[in-house]
Amino acid sequence: MKYILMMNTMKSGQGVPEWPRKDLQAHIAFMMAVDKELHERGELVSAEGLSFPENAKLVRAGKDGRPVTDGIFPESKEFLAGFWIIDVESPQRAYEIAAKVSAAPGPGGAPLNMPIEVRPIMSGPPPEML
Amino acid sequence: MTKKWDAAAEHLLRELAPRVLGAVARRFRDFSSAEDAVQEAMIAAFSQWPQEGIPENPRGWLIQVACRRMTDQVRNEIARRERETAVAAETENVASLLDIEGDMDPDDTLVLLFMCCHPALNPSSAIALTLRAVGGLTTAEIANAFLVPEATMAQRISRAKQTIKTSGTPFRLPSRQEWTGRLPAVLHVLYLIFSEGYTSSIGSHLQRFDLAREAIRLTRNTKTLIPDNPEVAGLLALMLLTDARRAARTGPGEELIPLDKQNRSLWDRVEISEGIELLTAALANGAVGLYQLQAAIAAVHDEAERAEDTDWPQILALYELLKRVSPGPMVTLNHAIAAAMVHGPAEGLQLLRALDTDPRLATHYRLAAVRGHLLEQTGDYEAAIKHYRIAAAGTTNIPERNYLMTQAARLASG
ipTM of the predicted structure? Predict the structure, then answer.
């Protein structure tokens, strides 16, 4: 079963860029280790980190169908910071990975306990219900 | 280099894969490395044979390439360990490579099947390893079939082999005693390969490897190797009787078409008659099991010329047997559908109530979908719409979601 794990985090101002170097390195190393573990277990489909919300634009179609862009206001809400797509045996395993990611180290090495949204990806229905 | 590359040649190559692997694994006493080596030989064959033609002796060719890989591995390993003493023994092994051809044993395919469907493996690992080692598929093809990156699939396979290695299972057929305990796991893996192919052959992934066909091929081979087991035959019958309806189960827009609305002239008569023949022979053989009963239900559907000709009392009786042989919430659900067809929707709805307290199914979309369907039959459209929508929100399958939303919309606008 495939799931997407969405890491919604980092309102502007409490973001990673302001952390002390040591904490930043620990955080980055943690995320790389997670990716490596998921790959080695044969569970990783893809993982992407997104650029900071300062680079984001909201786009709508104008009257003529051409794009009308608007700035994003990073103070206003939480942002998708990155996502993993995983292929695992059970929802429990997806939650376990999400909990691990949630506890990524933050300032001073303390776990961030970020909210991670876990959602099944549409595919075939589970064949195993008999 | 003589014959040309075609579907038959590819078939030959895939049939050879497990037999070559069996011989190499036995000779080198290392299943894991032999499996890698044969995979490399297969990849080499897939890239060279279509261009250069099929070698005079395809088996010998594969063995030679696989053994060359093994030798390289053994040499590297020895160099790494710097154990000179082992060199003599191993190179001697390598020297008489082509003797291996004489070692080929048809039972090796079966040995491999039991090995790959090892009880210590989780289903997705067992499926991947079975497709590669027994099915002769490349890692890239398997990855493509499951829509994951090739590197991820390679890891899954190598972990599966590590698990088998750790378990210490010897490379030989399980004893007759072990056999009874282990055959269900083998059949379950084959069944899962089939249903994976069947449930996800719709949608935007038409170029995916045809897993349903591969499952049928592997089960057919298993049937040849275990001719007298009624459940092996039952499983093959179930696959054929289900696959026969393939062309009719989706419309031009890839929308799902339920059984009672399918154009039955599109059903594959050849598959149906083969399935029924297999099933009839299996049922005469004694011990009725899970797969034979499911095949029997599929056969009753396939034998009805029009949906309204379906022999529902017989289907209901078969579900009652299935409930005893292999109880489970999905069986109860399907039993309720059959009961509704025989005794009316109220009876079906009554039976569904038992599932509301079953934690495995209480919140499952299929319960809501069936309830919606039965409520519609009783004329309670408002409740039917509600349950179709609950079901649409719960499913993780796009064509199914579209189908359920359309059902609700149809009633709402009616």
Answer: 0.80
